[in-house]
Design goal:
This protein has 430 residues and is mainly α. It folds into 2 domains: 212 residues, Hypothetical protein af1432; 209 residues, Orthogonal Bundle (Hypothetical protein af1432). Helix content is 61%, strand content 3%. InterPro entries: HD/PDEase_dom, HD_domain, HD_GYP_dom. It comes from Desulfarculus baarsii (strain ATCC 33931 / DSM 2075 / LMG 7858 / VKM B-1802 / 2st14). This is Metal dependent phosphohydrolase.
Length: 430
């Protein structure tokens, strides 16, 4: 069971960065490669260790506000800055300022403002301000690194394209990029190793982890874990208005079921964190499927069935989660072994996973979806009863849901109402 202790800041950010990469193979590792480029240029500029940490962490999540595949692919156009680049940067700011606020005493943070301005052009120095706000030097470095990475074409021999990328960046000095940073980039890019290292993700990740270092270790108690998991859940759920509060509903329903099942206060906090995190793998599911106003076909269901495996894979990279990973990742397993993706039987499915599974089903059936309205409570209870009777789901957990159905529905409804208000504020602020 996780105890109050420390969490690797780099591990957390790397997990989120990898999760966002799931949106499309075309954007995979863009953020980590951007972080590597920025850090190498920062070394040439002799920036402090704290500045390098900040730019690395911000770069690894700089596109977290790009909710859909379309917006991510647009950001991979070098001339994207001439279109409408600031919307996804502002959305990223809104997410990351919550993480910054949680760990405001840690000098390694400050990601939000760097991401907010990462598409501001230098404009011969006028880019020091944007909308009357000061633009940090690190934001301009992130902008440069982002555009360099976009120019690097996957699948092409890296040294073949180095000269063309360097020339294109040089041509944009002054207008798009701070000339001092362009000069530092040219020095870093003059080394063949700079381009060759970009081809090896393991080397990139090892370098970035070393740069963040021990200063990236943060104290995190169970309340902190719940807060952090909630933010991650929002990043996943906000991709679709139909799922904008789903993880909140699952987390609250699971917490109540866990209380009724005799879980301790700490275990209930863990189950809420699992509820927030259970669908992180859904970033691998295209928005078109999430928003489809009809039942999914077989091909689409095959895509959906990948998400709990991705949840398991992503959470494996976060140390200290303990049982939370299994509770979150096994929510589509069934006691008869016919679930997915691991086809586990009853003996391998812990009670926490069974609770998350029932909470997920209960929440999904009661909330509106693109193809139907939420079902009446009586109909939901009938479906749950059938799942228990056929040996699919845990009879004890479903019995608790049936016995306390109105209380469970009210808890779920209240959590989702609060979440809906937060989602409305988020959309309005953007």
């Amino acid at each position: 069971m996780p105890q109050a202790g420390r969490i690797s800041l780099y591990g957390m950010v790397a997990c989120l960065s990898s999760a966002l990469d799931l949106v499309s193979p075309a954007v995979a590792n863009h953020q980590k490669r951007t972080a590597f480029i920025a850090a190498r240029v920062a070394e040439v500029m002799k920036l402090s260790a704290a500045q390098r940490r900040a730019i690395i962490l911000a770069a690894m999540l700089h596109d977290c506000g790009a909710m859909s595949l379309g917006s991510k692919l647009e950001a991979l156009d070098f001339d994207f800055d001439q279109k409408n680049p600031h919307l996804h940067a502002e959305l990223g700011y809104l997410f990351l300022k919550k993480i910054d606020a949680m760990f405001q005493r840690n000098q390694a943070l400050g990601m939000a403002n760097l991401v907010r301005h990462h598409h501001v052009a230098w404009a011969d120095g006028r880019g020091r301000l944007h909308n009357d706000r000061i633009v940090a030097m690190e934001s301009h470095l992130l902008h440069l690194a982002d555009r360099v990475e976009v120019l690097c074409k996957r699948g092409r021999q890296p040294l073949e394209q180095a000269e063309g990328v360097r020339r294109r960046i040089d041509q944009s000095a002054g207008e798009s990029f701070d000339p001092r940073m362009v000069q530092a980039f040219q020095e870093a890019a003059s080394r063949e190793a700079f381009w060759l290292e970009l081809e090896y993700l393991d080397e990139i990740e090892a370098y970035l982890a070393d740069q963040v270092g021990a200063a990236g270790e943060m104290p995190l108690d169970m309340n902190g874990l719940m807060g952090l998991s909630n933010i991650i859940g929002e990043m996943v759920d906000y991709r679709s208005s139909f799922t904008a509060t789903h993880s909140l509903g699952v987390a609250r329903a699971a917490e109540l079921l866990a209380e009724l099942a005799g879980f301790s206060q700490e275990q209930r906090a863990m189950i809420m964190a699992a509820g927030h995190l259970h669908d992180i793998g859904k970033l691998a599911v295209p928005s078109e499927i999430l928003d489809k106003p009809a039942l999914l076909d077989a091909a689409e269901m095959r895509v959906v069935k990948t998400h709990p495996y991705q949840t398991h894979r992503l959470l494996s990279g976060l140390s200290g989660l303990g049982e939370i990973r299994a509770w979150a990742a096994y929510h589509h397993e069934t006691l008869d072994g016919a679930g997915y993706p691991f086809r586990l039987g009853a003996a391998a499915i812990p009670l926490g996973s069974r609770i998350i599974a029932v909470a997920d089903i209960f929440t999904a059936l009661t909330e509106d979806r693109p193809y139907r309205r939420g079902l009446p409570l009586a109909e939901v209870l009938t479906i749950l009863g059938q799942l228990a009777a056929t040996g699919k789901q845990d009879k004890l957990v479903i019995g608790l849901a049936q016995q306390h159905s109105r209380r469970l529905d009210e808890a779920r409804r209240q959590a989702q109402a609060e979440g809906a208000e937060g989602y409305r504020r988020f959309v309005a602020a953007a």
